Amino acid sequence: RREPLALINLKKKNEETGEEELSSRLNHFKAKATRHIFLIRHSQYNLDGRADKDRTLTPLGREQAELTGKRLASLGIKFDQIVHSSMTRATETTEIISKHLPGVKKVSTDLLREGAPIEPDPPVSHWKPEAVQYYEDGARIEAAFRNFIHRADVKQEEDSYEIFVCHANVIRYIVCRALQFPPEGWLRMSLNNGSITHLVIRPNGRVALRTLGDTGFMPPDKITRT
């Protein structure tokens, strides 16, 4: 429902001016700017922590976040905001990255928390959450996709650059949905800690994937996926 034609009440169209007026009204609802979405997976964290507050970044994880922050800063882009998952490992990753991007506002959200987005196809033997998780987490992660991944608002005049710091399952699901691939295939992708995934959303709604899980800026001995 973001196509310009879907935003117009065609019943109110002036019959005298016809297509000319419709074209004018369509232009009023067309997006003008491109959105650049940078999806960052959190850095390595303490897997032994039982509660979220105990799952803090490891020393290597903090190094990874520093490297990711430096990489984003080196792009020379004026970022508009950093939206991050409210989970500890994503929040800590954001704090370290933001040191390299002074002045960029940070926004925390529960929508981007880790979870089970949808039952994977083909299924895997090593990861089988309770079925109820797909219903609970899936609706939330889908809501995150719909809330954050869309073409620019018609009032947006200039291209925007936004960073989203979250989790592997969330990022993989979002990539599938954004590219209109079957979302059940999300588990076929693998993402390193601190990796950068870059989506571009054009004014006409077309989406392109520029990078997926890039960690080429990290030394090989700093790369992990856990």
From TrEMBL:
Against InterPro entries, the record matches this protein to: His_Pase_superF_clade-1, His_PPase_superfam, Mito_Ser/Thr_phosphatase
Q: Which Pfam families match?
A: His_Phos_1
Q: Which reaction does it catalyse?
A: O-phospho-L-threonyl-[protein] + H2O = L-threonyl-[protein] + phosphate; O-phospho-L-seryl-[protein] + H2O = L-seryl-[protein] + phosphate
Q: Which locations, inside or outside the cell, does it occupy?
A: Mitochondrion outer membrane
From its record, what is one biological process in GO terms? positive regulation of mitochondrial fission
Q: Does the keyword Membrane apply?
A: yes
Q: Which GO terms describe its molecular function?
A: protein serine/threonine phosphatase activity
Q: What class of enzyme is it?
A: hydrolase
Sorted alphabetically, which keywords does the UniProt record give?
Hydrolase, Membrane, Mitochondrion, Mitochondrion outer membrane, Necrosis
Question: Where does it sit, as one GO cellular component term?
Answer: mitochondrial outer membrane
EC numbers for this chain: 3.1.3.16
Chief place of localization: mitochondrion
Source organism, top-level taxon: Eukaryota
Q: Which family does it belong to?
A: Belongs to the phosphoglycerate mutase family. BPG-dependent PGAM subfamily.
What is the official name of this protein in its record?
Serine/threonine-protein phosphatase PGAM5, mitochondrial
Give the species: Eolophus roseicapilla (Galah cockatoo)
Which lineage do the record's taxonomy fields give for this organism? Eukaryota, Metazoa, Chordata, Craniata, Vertebrata
Instruction: Please state the gene responsible for encoding this protein.
Output: Pgam5
